[in-house]
Hints:
The protein is an alpha/beta fold and 303 residues long. The protein has 13 helices and 11 strands. A 6-stranded mixed beta sheet has the order 8-7-6-9-11-10, with helices on both faces. A 5-stranded mixed beta sheet has the order 3-2-1-4-5, sandwiched between helices. One of its GO terms (molecular function) is pyrophosphatase activity.
Amino acid sequence: xxxxxxxxxxxxxxxxxxxxxxxxxxxxxxxxxxxxxxxxxxxxxxxxxxxxxxxxxxxxxxxxxxxxxxxxxxxxxxxxxxxxxxxxxxxxxxxxxxxxxxxxxxxxxxxxxxxxxxxxxxxxxxxxxxxxxxxxxxxxxxxxxxxxxxxxxxxxxxxxxxxxxxxxxxxxxxxxxxxxxxxxxxxxxxxxxxxxxxxxxxxxxxxxxxxxxxxxxxxxxxxxxxxxxxxxxxxxxxxxxxxxxxxxxxxxxxxxxxxxxxxxxxxxxxxxxxxxxxxxxxxxxxxxxxxxxxxxxxxxxxx
Length: 303
């Protein structure tokens, strides 16, 4: 069964077209565009006209890929920014006009469940797992082994924290302290709600995690096969985070594994990742390239 899954978050919109056979996905197309849909939402409460147009342009391209692939089922899930925005109806109308389907503006808990499903299928490391999905506007925390047992979504993400606190280039000590205080409070609330400290394996999802993994492994270029299910120590994450936060955006852009649309927010994302590891007590994290997109695809195939 060939399906098309779209994940539209605060920072990026991503497409997976895949053939699903039993519990296996075979990628036909897996692509991403950074559209920064949630730009300014934390401050204004609205999706900007420019952000909606960037997203529409990406979806037009995705619609053509879906048509050419002859996918039999399409599902689009929209997450943090479209949950928070007062003009979310404009976003829904735009998506329906381009794709011919309504976007599902899912809750943080639904997002967490889909991310968990995508992350743990095929994972050799032992459960129970603490899975965190570090997005632009929010981070989801999920615990479980074969299925989700507990989940919570917190409004800490790389875009939201950058817009709220990190205004200098590179950020100042005071800005970093304010960010860490904000993030630590949210992470502690999450870990009180889900038993993440008792999990045997920590799994991290999304672009911040995979980019930090690429930097920790000192890859000469972004290589998803080498990153997927690779293990990164807490010491390595701490080192990479410090290096990123000491750089200007221009210096980050020069890193060979850095996506241009991530360079201005990766510092905040790495800081969130480091705090999660510190507060949960895990000495290492497994980076996964499979996440909510894969969960959406599996869900489509299951009907």
